[in-house]
Design goal:
500 residues; alpha/beta; Nucleotidyltransferase, domain 5; six-stranded mixed beta sheet
């Protein structure tokens, strides 16, 4: 085919990025813009959906310009996005009726706790959706917007409003409002979608009081959905791939076989293990989620979510001011041999899997007069790795699969010290891919499969290559035993910090 590239739109929690990939999966051009984080109240996190759209469009145009590419050079657009974040907009004007409620937002935690208190109802929801009842997911966020935005519920019931996760919002804008769609991976994160059929569940919609008219159509993850409006790039470009960011990273890491796993170190940390066509119900409060759908085949994954991963480094930079840039943390943390007995539990937005405590809050324990900012930096990196350790232990218990390696990606995976700490804590090799942008690459692969840019999954897997391999320390380290014990003690003390 004459097209040279796939354009991947990677809409994340703190920034919008656009990346051009060539046929070998190599990054050709990219552009990135951060956008505002809005914190109206403690525990509330919002985004301006219009700003998200504007930054995503500008980065797409900038990436094309950097490569000197024309729309005719693009075989298709793949979209990957922060999941669960909830947008409600006017179908006529395309304008949001309120700020988007971000996946980290905890305003509906008390409402979700009342559901969880009814064991039968919580089990009913988990069996249908694969999800633990929590404010993390879209259903309670959408209900809140309908209940608290003036006239929203009345207008929604009249068919005037549209709901979507960020993928749906971007496609609506890219197509000039002609397409209101999502894919199975994003739909499976709303708590409104049946895991077995990948369709909206009428009983769940009734339970959460969601008018069906606001919902997008659910599609496979690799398909030609529509074309961009000609005025955006000069001529139309086909939109052909959609996946939530973590499922996209699993696909981009070529974890196409059951038992393969990856961890993404972004704002949060997200560990996914591919389970093939089998839905594994977790006994350790992990999530069963749809990985993707290719053709008629739906594939699944087990997932553990850490709400605050790399965001803890941003907190040290922006709130404490002990570093000027995120890159500085590695050298600062490496300047001391250990954390000096300090344990950092970054439960700023509660604790995710396997704890699921929306009322936990962050804590720093074990402070002494000798504690320095270097000890805090090291404890922060350890906290990221320790949260992932909790997830992997739970996941291996559920799947009865002993992991032989963990493939990693995301911004914080570039931190050499963090990756070595992770390998030591897991006692499993940590493998960093040649292409760091595996989330965007996964979305590109899905779009490329739909448009014929790539032949099949075997071809895609052949392009995956290792860049670095972090081996766990061969000798028994007594300090690790103490680190793990202190971690579990500190987590328990951080739970239920505020009253529900």
């Amino acid at each position: 085919m004459s097209a040279k590239y796939i354009l991947s739109l990677d809409q994340g929690t703190t920034s919008s990025r656009a990346i051009l990939f060539d046929h070998s999966g190599d990054l050709i051009a990219s552009s990135q813009q951060e956008f505002q984080q809005i914190f109206p109240k403690p525990g509330w996190v919002e985004h301006d959906a219009t700003e998200i759209w504007q930054t995503q469009l500008e980065t797409a145009r900038a990436a094309l310009a950097e490569a000197g590419a024309q729309p005719s050079d693009i075989a298709g657009i793949g979209i990957t996005n922060q999941r669960e974040t909830t947008v409600l907009w006017d179908r006529q004007t395309g304008e949001p009726v309120a700020n988007a409620i971000v996946w980290q937002d905890r305003r509906t935690a008390e409402y979700c706790q009342t559901i969880s208190a009814d064991t039968g109802r919580a089990e009913w929801i988990q069996k249908r959706t694969g999800l633990v009842v929590d404010a993390y997911f879209s259903a309670s966020k959408l209900k809140w917007l309908l209940d608290h935005t003036p006239r929203a519920r009345t207008r929604a019931e009249a068919g005037e409003l549209a709901f979507g996760t960020i993928d749906s919002w971007l496609i609506w804008q890219l197509t000039g409002g002609s397409h209101h769609v999502t894919d199975v991976s994003n739909a499976s994160r709303t708590m409104l979608c049946r895991l077995d059929t990948a369709q909206w569940d009428t009983e769940l919609l009734e339970f959460f009081d969601i008018p069906p008219s606001v919902l997008p159509e659910i599609r496979p993850s690799s398909q030609c959905y529509g074309e961009t409006s000609p005025d955006l790039f000069g001529e139309p470009i086909t939109i052909a791939g959609i996946a939530g960011d973590q499922q996209a990273a699993l696909f981009g890491q070529a974890c196409h076989q059951a038992g393969m796993a990856k961890n993404t170190y972004g704002t949060g940390c997200f560990l996914l293990m591919h389970t093939g066509t089998e839905q594994i119900t977790s006994q350790h409060d992990l999530l069963t989620t749809i990985a993707w759908q290719l053709g008629d085949q739906i594939e699944y994954a087990l997932e553990g979510s850490v709400f605050i991963g790399g965001a803890v480094v941003q907190w040290l930079r922006d709130q404490l001011g002990i570093i000027d840039s995120a890159e500085e943390i590695e050298a600062l943390a490496a300047s001391v041999p250990d954390s000096g007995g300090v344990t950092f539990v970054p439960a700023f937005a509660g604790l995710g899997a396997p704890h699921w405590d929306g009322f936990a809050r962050g804590s720093i324990q074990g402070l002494t007069r000798g504690t320095s900012k270097a000890h805090l930096a090291r404890a922060a990196l350890e906290a990221i790795a320790l949260q992932v350790m909790d997830l992997l232990e739970a996941m291996q218990g559920d799947a009865s699969i002993e992991l032989t390696e963990l493939r990693v990606d995301g911004g914080a995976s570039q931190n050499e010290l963090l990756m070595q700490i992770q390998a030591d804590l897991l006692d499993v090799p940590v493998v960093r891919a040649q292409v760091a942008e595996t989330t965007a690459l996964g979305a590109a692969y899905l779009a490329g499969l739909a448009t014929g840019f790539w032949k099949d999954q075997q071809e895609i897997a052949s392009y995956w290559a290792m860049r670095d391999r972090f081996q766990p320390s061969s000798k028994q380290n007594p300090d690790l035993t103490a680190t793990k014990a202190n971690w579990r003690k500190a987590v328990n003390r951080s739970k239920a910090w505020i009253d529900g």
